Amino acid sequence: MIGMSSIVRHIPQLDFLNLSGNPLGRSPIASVNFPQMLRCLVLSNTATDWTTVRTLLHSLPRLEELFLCFNNYKEVPLHPTLAYSSSSTASSSSSSSSSSNPTHSQSALDSFFAWQSCVPSGSQSSGTQSLDTKNSTHTEGAGLEFQCNTALELSGTQSTNISDPKTSSPVHSDLLQNEHLISDLSLQDPNTAISSFTSIKLLHITYNHLAAWDEICNLGLLFPRLERLVLANNPLQRISGCKRKLAKTFPHLRNLNLQNTALAEWSDIESLTALPALTELRLLGIPLMKSHSATERRKLSIARLPFVRSLNGSWIFPEEREDAERFFLRYYMDTEPALQPPRYSELLAHYGQLQQLADIDLRPQEHAQVSVRCDDKVSSCFIRLDQTVTELRRELRTVCTLPPGALRLFHVVHKETAVWCPEEMRMGTRQLHSFGIRDGDEILVERKGK
Hints:
Blueprint: H1 2-9, E1 16-18, E2 40-42, H2 50-58, E3 65-67, H3 86-92, H4 108-116, E4 133-135, E5 145-148, E6 162-163, E7 170-171, H5 179-187, E8 193-195, E9 202-204, H6 213-222, E10 228-230, H7 243-249, E11 255-257, H8 266-271, E12 280-282, H9 294-304, E13 310-311, E14 314-315, H10 318-331, H11 342-351, E15 367-374, E16 377-384, H12 389-400, E17 407-412, E18 423-424, E19 442-447
Parallel strand pairs: 1-2, 2-3, 3-9, 9-10, 10-11, 11-12, 12-13, 15-19
Antiparallel strand pairs: 4-5, 5-8, 6-7, 13-14, 15-16, 17-18, 17-19
Helix pairs in contact: 4-5, 9-10, 10-11
């Protein structure tokens, strides 16, 4: 770290730093005095833990882009000493005394949103106890900190007013529909602060082991101004949670990359419509798409995502969107109403009842059954139309018992009403389908010089 400190000290205007591949997991990197102008930091494949990442972010107020790929992350704790996710709680329950309390398995992320949500109400009930929240002082580059100073205590059927730290609007405790959420709130350490880093706009966290959506939501709480999130090659299996929670977690996210994740249900894709700013999405390589053709994948995805303007790197133009939405209606037209996607009724109200399109195959014919006439001998042959004239001459030498170079071929079109004049098949490299050969036509073979 002494060498790194010496290097960065002499480059005060440094705005991009790539430390990929350096084993920083056990190094005191947090003690390095990085330039305050640093805008992009790459810590991929460095085994950097979240405590170190958090410490670095506190000292980099202008950092906008952060790369944390290949670091084997399985969880995203909101605090160095607490893992605010259901997966981390479950993994530690076997070795801690908290396993005896069933409420510990409930994600504290849900309780965070329960007291952070702000729902206007016409009347306010007086509560027995309120949760005193306040904005802590801004540390340089740390963004906004919420600190819980007292635990929530509720009794009987009385409702408690919970003030949102941003708007101070009351929220009644009857929104916390069960005692588990309330219990989780009381589990929070009064001396623990949840820090958010508002300068980060781009986060690459690919090739890690993030499988639970709660961990992804924790990223949204740590980086509330996030605009671009790359989650490719993580074993993410489901996108869970209500739409209000998704909207609050990623209010500014406009670009999301979910390539090569483990998403296998259309409901997961439909959940993304709750993200208010999302316009660019990548879904290549997910198991959901494997059972569909390339055309179906794109059209069915576009129809489900009305506000997405770019899918898998390709812009969606109005004509393509209308075509995809009409395709979507016809695709699910014969499906049982109970099994039709929610988007179906919306598009049906917009376009009305559509008719199925006729299935017209415009591909060129691949084979043809023709008659081959050589002198007075007529044979029926099944020929490939993608072969050339020269290849057909070689094929017909067994029928005419003449060398290929000695054959002249003519195409004769047979119609019900007339027989067209023969067309000599001169060019040896020309493919047969270019002559318009169809079933029932005739190939006339003559000897050259005749």
